[in-house]
Sequence to fold (261 residues):
Amino acid sequence: MALSFSALLPPESMVPVNMEERLQKILARAGIASRRTAEEYIKQGRVRIDGQIVTDMGIRVDPSRHRIDFDGRPIAAAEKKIYLLLNKPKGYVTTLRDPEGRPVVTSLLMGIAGRLFPVGRLDMDTEGALLLTNDGDLAQRILHPSYEVRKTYVAKVVGQPDQQKLDQLSQGIMLEGRRTWPAKLRVLARTKQDSTIEIIIHEGRKRQVRLMFAAIGHRVIDLKRTAYGNLQIGGLPSGKYRLLSREDLDLIFSKKKNSLQ
Fold:
């Protein structure tokens, strides 16, 4: 009689169990932040293990045996994952708290219980699609360049950049000592004073789209993110959000070509 694979394993009592994981992964799974941001929190001394502040990136912890506190509060066990898409208005910062007292995006999440954090950021003067979740692993996948999640923006810029300048952005330009990855651009409208251009990138450098257009001599007047991958902001009103389904999340990572590709 054939045996199943599990039948070939030793009894459970004979298998050593090691529940230790990297601290930043535990924080991400608990919905504190993405792994990248969790690493910054650890460096800042905001995490304690059994009452002791830890700043070591490589530390591994068994959450069933040790108490882990973030900002003085014990982290909760893994909670139900929540994913939502917010149409961020201008005038809000994409942080959980702001020392200057400016409005934060999480104040717009009326009716949502639990702690959510933004996946990436939008500048205070940029509007549009912003994902928020308590799933740190998903946030890491979206933010990490290796997954090449495309972000689509519509930028209104001063003047009329010619094709040669747009080709520079398409091929990649030097910004702050590093070359940008190739972008995809399409001119949507032109007037004597300005141009409206759709641009798709998969990096997430700070103020990247604004810096790219500034580098070719065309300042951004207005900027809106319209999509993550193939997940579109659509007709979602400014300041409102909608919960995302598994099908919506699949659209974020979909490699199906959109109108620019």
In short: The chain is about 20% helix and 25% strand. The CA atoms of residues 98 and 104 lie 7 Å apart. Residues 1-18 have pLDDT under 50 and may be disordered.
